[in-house]
Amino acid sequence: MTHLSQIELLLPELRAYARSICGYAESPEDLVQDAVERTLRHETRPERTEELRPWLFRVIRNLHYDELRKKRVRREYIAEQKRLMDESDGTSSEGRDILIRLAFERLPPETREVLFLIDIMGFKYAEAAEVMSVPIGTVMSRVSRARRELLRRVNGNDQDEEQAKQTR
């Protein structure tokens, strides 16, 4: 029996398990689809159905808890950023959000990419490195530089640079 036909036989159980751990609201179908995709890409997956079944259940479980962790990290990050903005110079939160978004949009694409993956999507450095096809150390240094650049632009230090360019 091929891996695909083994997986097809297991789909009803996989869907039921995904629904049991995440409910209908969090798209159990997406969870199953991601698990099947990872299984098919994985070169050393179990051969026998008896071994493949628990292996797929673990993949679903791990994907689900990874997503929960990412959501928690995003919530904590957003809450921390909101707290820091509220404590800052007294500008309104909405005004500060707009400044950050405008500054973010003006960053070079590779700078926006690393900030988006790490700070917005909550990827780990290793995950972002895999997505970007660069070493983890490169991601770490790019994130550091990107955060400094964004902060510089949000704090208004960007205006001096823009004026200098216009006078040249």
TrEMBL record:
Originating organism: Nitratireductor indicus C115
Keywords from the named record: Sigma factor, Transcription, Transcription regulation
GO terms, biological process: DNA-templated transcription initiation
Domain of life per record: Bacteria
GO-annotated molecular function: DNA binding; sigma factor activity
Domain RNA polymerase sigma-70 region: 8-72
Domain RNA polymerase sigma factor 70 region 4 type: 100-150
Record's protein name: ECF subfamily RNA polymerase sigma-24 factor
Cross-referenced NCBIfam families: sigma70-ECF (TIGR02937)
InterPro entries named in the record: RNA_pol_sigma-70-like, RNA_pol_sigma-70_dom, RNA_pol_sigma70_r2, RNA_pol_sigma70_r4_t2, RNA_pol_sigma_r2, RNA_pol_sigma_r3/r4-like, WH-like_DNA-bd_sf
UniProt record similarity statement: Belongs to the sigma-70 factor family. ECF subfamily.
